[in-house]
Specification:
The complex is a heterodimer of chains A (443) and B (323). Chain A has 443 residues and is an alpha/beta fold. Chain A has three domains: 82 residues, Up-down Bundle (Four Helix Bundle (Hemerythrin (Met), subunit A)), CATH 1.20.120.140; 193 residues, Rossmann fold, CATH 3.40.50; 144 residues, Signal recognition particle, SRP54 subunit, M-domain (434 Repressor (Amino-terminal Domain), Orthogonal Bundle). Helix content of chain A is 57%, strand content 9%. In chain B, 56% of the residues are buried. The chains are: A alpha/beta (443), B alpha/beta (323).
Chain lengths: 443, 323
């Protein structure tokens, strides 16, 4: 199971605090942990090598050597360097002076291009633009129908000429249709293709030449492994895309492939897609993806959503608790209830996955509403003093709680284990080890 | 490819390019990728004390998405052999390396698709975009080539036009097609497909399912339900639960396999899209940590582009360059 880098480095380095200084060997160990964590997150091997070299250089400096918490200092450096490598926040599409703005989608099979066309069209329609889509994936059976169905649900026109036509011709014709009908953005869906398929890559180049797109976007599956670099490079050489859209980030993939793409091609990541529904598209935030790659959870997104739900005073109280590390099971229960308020459209697992540290564990347990009910029942079966101090809960109390909540001892143990982990994470947050957090909580 | 009731291997269709098997194709693809292991090792006198050789090996494995734990296992076994003096040349190293990987990838039981039951039910599942529908079309085609009749059930009632896509494949493969309208209950479609196969006396039922992320609890519950409904209709069914894994997938593939296997007892992996530059090393990680065998591989968009998995071929393709 993945362990977060913060945990790993904490275990490796924090124990050395009493020695005052870090030796060369300690740094070596830390770099090894970083390397493994990044490889597990699918960051490209070559990128990892360069990255670790850079971090090592900084880690040898005074900010770490003289720190009381070298482990967290190293995490901080890694996070900063990752964020920097990831580039600036997603800039949206560029729009043509004279409409229609042409957007060309490209990518491997199964990356999520067609769904992405629909999502993009929805975003544009919300911005009071009038998008249209062109069905140029004539390869995959029923790809045209899929785009039509999406178009229908969005009330966006889809230009198609069946599957016997030439995709280059269809693309060109589609753009002309859009111009004639006064649509101001036209999104061209293309067939998925392998980056080594010369014929199809050549076809993509011709689609680009024929339509002169203002935006060429590479759609990349966030679960892609080491091969992402080859894919990104080959598409860049062929069609010199303007940016990347990262899909399927609602799963538990770390998305390290994005880092490699960025490092190797220098192309920015524009959007991230977080679900199959058409409204689940978000602008890209480098710091959040950096946290995710490090296994720190998508804290910022969670907090942003929480801010809409939690009042300012509640947030202040929570922050104070975090600072004093007084996070109790009562707070946990309160949070669960808050979280439940926030799950609209996202699903429980998606939201809990954003919690630092615990997110992954909880998510792996396939949290659903019933499980939340169970957690609630378990906590409610504890006495107030037990909720405030779970250390009181010995074997016989566990049996009592299990009986009271209609669960079993294993389930009680599981919850207590999760809570302990969460408490540990919260403690780290509270100590200001993740410096951005308190400010954001305050707003 | 298939294990049949009469115990005979169903006839395999001849690969279209005679004398140019899968291995040659994979190797071709591989030689296009820049870091073929053999090229790195070629002409290198192997010295077990040379850390650079070990580092390059490690690099090759990690670059193939084999993941850290499987890579460590492979290297440790090699090191043990080297320490015992059994590896002295680069050729020996390379041969042993392939052997170890093939061993890790060879399942303990029959790697063929079990169609001994009548009808045999195959449930196909996986993450969005990994190639479920395409793989089903290919399996159905191969079944027909092997003289078997087949019903395809379209239990992906979620994605726009998924049914139409599958129906096209069913037509190409000459299989019966059972579906419901979009938004229908997938378990009901699975049930209908099995019932149709029984009443029409078909040999095999293949049930397609909607792509789902392994982290989506409610969708995994839905998958369990489909499984349960099939099992309720026929004892011992589904006889195969196949999980499609995209060969370009990184370490998340392991998590996919783990959670799908927890939900529905996956019997085998279909490793898709092996015709690109990705080498599918994640399958080694899955075999190493979960013991789930690869049963089929997808090597192109054509209907015939599906092959039984051969561990030795796979191991060679991971490392052999274009010699």
């Amino acid at each position: 199971m993945f362990e977060s880098l913060s945990d790993r480095l904490g275990a490796t380095l924090d124990g050395l605090r009493s020695q005052g200084r870090l030796s060369e060997e300690d740094i070596q160990k830390a770099m090894r942990e970083i390397r493994l964590a990044l490889l597990e997150a699918d960051v490209n091997f070559g990128v990892v090598r360069d990255f670790v070299a850079k971090v090592r250089e900084r880690a040898m400096g005074a900010e770490v050597m003289e720190s009381l918490t070298p482990g967290q200092q190293v995490v901080k450096i890694v996070h900063e360097e990752l964020t920097e490598l990831m580039g600036s926040a997603g800039s949206g599409l560029s729009f043509a002076n004279r409409p229609p703005t042409v957007v060309l989608m490209a990518g491997l099979q199964g990356a999520g291009k067609t769904t992405m066309c629909g999502k993009l069209a929805r975003v544009l329609a919300k911005q009071k633009r009038s998008p249209a889509m062109v069905a140029c994936d004539l390869q995959r059976p029923a790809a045209v129908q899929q785009l039509q169905t999406l178009g229908k649900s969005l009330q966006v026109p889809v230009y198609e000429r069946g599957t016997d036509a030439d995709p280059v011709e269809v693309a060109k014709w589609g753009v002309e249709q859009a111009r004639a009908q006064g649509r101001d953005v036209v999104i061209i869906d293309t067939a998925g293709r392998l980056h080594i398929d010369e014929e199809l890559m050549d076809q993509l180049v011709r689609v680009k030449q024929a339509t002169k797109p203002h935006n060429v976007l590479l759609v990349l599956d966030s679960m892609t492994g080491q091969d992402a670099v080859n894919v990104a490079q080959a598409f860049a050489e062929a069609v010199d895309y303007d940016g990347v859209i990262l899909t399927k980030l609602d799963g538990d993939a770390r998305g390290g492939a994005a880092l490699a793409v960025r490092a190797v091609t220098g192309k920015p990541i524009k959007y991230v897609s977080v679900g199959e529904k058409l409204d689940q598209l978000e602008p890209f935030h480098p710091d959040r993806l950096a946290s995710r790659i490090l296994g720190m959870g998508d804290v910022m997104s969670l907090i942003e959503r929480a801010q809409e739900q939690i009042s300012e005073t509640e947030a202040r109280e929570m922050e104070a608790k975090l600072r004093k590390s007084e996070f109790t099971l009562e707070d946990f229960l309160g949070q669960l209830r808050q979280v439940r308020k926030m799950t609209a459209g996202q699903g429980m697992a998606g939201l809990l996955g954003m919690l630092p540290g615990v997110g992954r564990q909880i998510k792996n347990l396939k949290v659903d509403e019933r499980q939340i009910d169970r957690v609630e029942a378990i906590i409610l079966s504890m006495t107030p003093s037990e909720r405030r101090n779970p250390r009181l809960i010995d074997g016989s109390r566990r049996r009592r709680i299990a009986a009271g909540s209609g669960t079993n001892v294993q389930q009680v143990n599981q919850l207590l284990g999760q809570f302990k982990q969460m408490q540990r994470m919260m403690k780290q947050v509270g100590k200001g080890k993740m410096p951005q957090l308190p400010g954001l909580m305050r707003r | 490819m298939f294990r049949t009731a009469d115990g005979e291997d169903a006839p395999e269709p001849e690969p279209e390019e005679t004398g140019r098997g899968l291995f040659a194709r994979l190797r071709d693809n591989l030689s296009r990728s820049r870091r073929a292991m053999a090229q790195q090792l070629a002409g290198v006198m192997f010295d077990p004390a040379d850390t650079e050789v070990w580092e390059r090996l490690e690099e090759a494995l990690l670059l193939s998405d084999c993941g850290v734990p499987a890579t460590v296992t492979v290297i440790e076994r090699l090191e043990a052999d080297a320490d015992a003096g059994r590896l002295t040349t680069a050729d020996e190293l390379s041969a042993r390396l392939q052997q170890i990987i093939a061993e890790l990838m060879t399942p303990s039981d029959d790697p063929r698709i079990d169609i001994t039951a009548h009808p045999a039910v195959l449930l196909v599942t996986g993450v969005n975009g990994t190639g479920k529908t395409t793989s089903i079309g290919k399996i159905a085609w191969h079944l027909r080539e092997a003289g078997r009749t087949c019903v395809i059930g379209a239990a992906d009632t979620f994605r726009a036009a998924a049914g139409e896509q599958l129906e096209t494949w069913a037509q190409r493969a000459g299989a019966d097609f059972v579906s419901s309208q979009s938004g229908g209950d997938p378990a009901a479609v699975a049930f209908d497909a099995v019932a149709a196969a029984e009443s029409r006396d078909r040999d095999v039922v293949i049930v397609d399912t909607a792509g789902r992320l392994h982290t989506q609890g409610h969708l995994m519950d839905e998958l369990r339900k489909i499984h349960r409904v099939i099992a309720g209709r026929i004892d011992g069914a589904p006889h195969e639960v196949l999980l499609t894994i995209d060969a370009t997938t990184g370490q998340n593939g392991l998590q996919q396999a783990r959670l799908f296997a927890e939900a529905v007892e996956v019997t085998g992996i279909v490793l898709t899209k092996l015709d690109g530059t990705a080498k599918g090393g994640i399958a080694l990680a899955i075999a190493h940590e979960l013991g789930i065998p690869v049963k089929l591989i997808g090597i192109g968009e054509g209907i015939e582009d599906l092959r039984p998995f051969d561990p030795a071929d796979f191991a060679r393709a991971l490392f052999a360059g274009g010699e």
